[in-house]
Amino acid sequence: MTFQGPHAAYMRTQQREEHDLGDAHNLVSITLTEFLRSLSILNSEVDLSHEVRNRHLARSFTALYILQDSLDFDKGGDIALNLFRIYEFTRQQLLAYGRREKVDLSVPHRAMSEILDAWNAIGQE
Question: Could you list the residue range(s) of the whole structural domain that residue 117 is in?
């Protein structure tokens, strides 16, 4: 049995899986998954370094912009509008977190988790 130090464990968590980005449904699913991963890290009780905190904030904002840009308000109607509102609420929470205001990121995390579950259920139909 070999011992792998904390650095090796951290590096394993930073490795990316290869994803099929050709499928739009899959791209949204991956974006939501990666967003939730970064949001979980930001919401953890661990004291994050400045670099790690900023990297996951940037990833979270990028994911939100991708999700907002993927909305089709013509075809999506009220659903697209409601998703946009949730994404915008989440963005505002992240901005407050970035300003080091006291923010409970578990609220947007729960909402986005529900969206991912629903999105994945649609993909299985």
Answer: 23-124
